[in-house]
Amino acid sequence: MDYKITLKNKHKHDVWLAHIEGINNKEEADALKGTKLYCDRAHLVDADDDEIYQIDLIGRACVDENGEIIGTITAVENFGAGDLFDIKPPNGQNFYISHDDKTVLKIDDKIIVRMPEVI
């Protein structure tokens, strides 16, 4: 189903109020809870030079500081404590690393990461 969504104003530092055409009361809005929203790539604004859309990270190789292949990003997740890269190594099971300034050193055609120490 297609929805026309119009952003109204910022409610909090990271929350926007929006109007969904055809949704006219709280009950209709509540029925949409959990609905995943998608838009065509053509509707996205161009990312600035220091920005990237998360979808564009999927499929990129991750290497360590020495250029050794760690794996390929299969997804970008956020379970509430920050973004995580789901990485599929050449062998073995997928694992997560944080997408933060300490771990992700550079995002280019490959993603250079500093692997955290295992305790």
Mean of pLDDT: 89
Spans of at least 5 consecutive residues with low confidence: none
Domains (count): 2
Strand order of the largest sheet: 6-5-4-3-8-7
Q: CATH superfamily of the largest domain, called what?
A: PRC-barrel domain
The CATH topology of the largest domain is what?
SH3 type barrels
Compute the number of strand runs: 8
Going by helix content, strand content and strand pairing, the class is mainly beta
Count of DSSP H/I helices: 1
Helix content percent band: under 10%
Strand content: 35-45%
How does the major sheet shape up? 6 strands, mixed
Would you state the CATH class of the largest domain?
Answer: Mainly Beta
Q: How far apart are the first and last residues' alpha carbons, in Å?
A: 48 Å
Shape: elongated
Secondary-structure element string: EEHEEEEEE
State the CATH architecture of the largest domain.
Roll
Commentary on this structure:
The protein contains one helix and eight strands, in the order E-E-H-E-E-E-E-E-E. It has 119 residues and is mostly beta strands. The protein folds into two domains: 5-38, no CATH class; 54-113, PRC-barrel domain (SH3 type barrels). The strands form two sheets. The chain has a six-stranded mixed sheet with strand order 6-5-4-3-8-7, with no helix packed on it. A two-stranded antiparallel sheet has the order 1-2. The longest helix has 5 residues, at 26-30.
Task: Map the helices and strands.
Elements: E1 5-12, E2 15-20, H1 26-30, E3 61-63, E4 69-78, E5 83-88, E6 95-98, E7 104-107, E8 111-113
Parallel strand pairs: 3-8
Antiparallel strand pairs: 1-2, 3-4, 4-5, 5-6, 7-8
